[in-house]
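Methods — Computational structure assignment.
A single polypeptide chain was analysed. Its primary sequence is given first, followed by the predicted tertiary structure written as structure tokens.
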Amino acid sequence: MSVWSWVKLAVCLWLLRQAIKVAKWLLIVAVAVAAWPVTAVAGIGYGAAWVRGWLASAPATFDARQWRRQVWTAKGRIAAPGAVPLMASGGRIPAGGTIRSVGHRWRPVFAVPYPACTRHMVVVGATGSGKTNLMMRLWAGWFAAAAAAARAAAAGRGRPPLLIVLDCKGGADARVKAARTWRLLHGAGARRVAIWPDEARLSLWDLPPYDLAVLLFQMIESGDGAAAYYADIMQAVLILAVTAPCGPPAAGADFLARLDARWLASAWDDGLHPGEVQRIKGAARHLPDIQLRFATLLGRLGPALDGPGNLRDADAWYFILEGTSQKSVAEAQAMAITELAAHAATDARGPPRAILLAADDYSSVSGRVPLSNLYERGRSLGIGVQVSAQSWQGLGATEDERYRIAATADGGVWVLNTPYPEPLTGLAGQRRVLETARRMVGATWGDEGTTREHRVWTADPELIHRLDVGQACYIHRGAATFIQVARPRPSPLTLTAGGPGGDGGSGPGPGGIRLPAPRREANPAAETASDRLDHVTGPWGAP
């Protein structure tokens, strides 16, 4: 075969193959055109039957598809840079993209009004549900809104914010969360964020003398029955030691030195206090035991409550309590810190502060100070209180206490994925739904039917059971909004706000607040699975 013949054969074969391909596509197009009316009618009919509920599984399937679509839209919305800042107009605190709203006005980005965070909130979510990210966003948003409100107030009448966070579980995870909170609050405008006990200390002895005596008595477990007599003696000795005419103790060593019969007799034996002198003589033989108990207590508490330091020294405090490993010590620390917070709310030595006391997993240390007492005291002092727990049972020791805590959360209840959400979703109540059924005549649907009214949950417990990481339901005043929480990151727009420079090297001086560089964590492996997922889905920057 010549070269020319071989070329002609190759060309003919190629043209044949192309002709076959073209014929195949033409056949497909012809079939599609011919079948299009039938396909369209069948699709429209099936869709109409699905929407009208004629198919048995249509409502449930439709709702599931709608939920997936709403989640996808909310995730896309919070991924846009700047879409969910720490604070929005009007002092509102954005939390994330709205997935579904029942009873609340629907907005693309759901935001909590600033006054809601000044009252009491409950956050319930299992480990790894994204509870920490939600709480951090609320903390930073509250701080930014409170600072803005203080700047907008009349001269000298603003209430600068004071954020007090109790991380009650402790451990390596607490250090990771503290570092994230430190950076986030600096971005929200905080000049100094103190991390206790790693980098800052407080003085327990700044409390008023009688309050200090009561607190020291409560920090020691005295028992019941025959121990009540000893408890009365110990309380009397504490009052004598703390309220001595020379003034209250200035430190732990000073206080322990006062638990001595000779010191007390010398301090009170001025001829003006005969009753106190008699009480000292009656309690003299118990003083060595009392001194030993308080020396042990102060030794276990460590130097972090022995000063120097005051809550007024910082804009925000992050307290790490080792509630998991040292429960009794953490409980005593929680009692002391809440007492110091109460004193800060009534202290006339400085300007009044807007205070938010946020307790993460407070149930770990609530044995000595129940959450209900914390709520009631915060309300009487004008302190906003935000508490979190991993489950409904973690809110209190009894069912009555749990319901009391949840029912008095007038700032709202946040429910993330948790195994037992029904008591919390019940706070949203039920809503009226009309269900329509049509009558079938032969093989066709007739014009007659029935409509009946029934009640469904406003916040569906089954839906909360299926919540993914970072999804939450906000329940407030009989309404519920499901959101995709946005990972809290400081917006670049908030970092150049005017104002004086910060303490501790966190500010550059007049002209703005500079965001500190990220700190290297001591244990990166301690980051939770929720945090790692948020690093991937976060809206701003790299982790």
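Note: The two ends are 69 Å apart (CA to CA).
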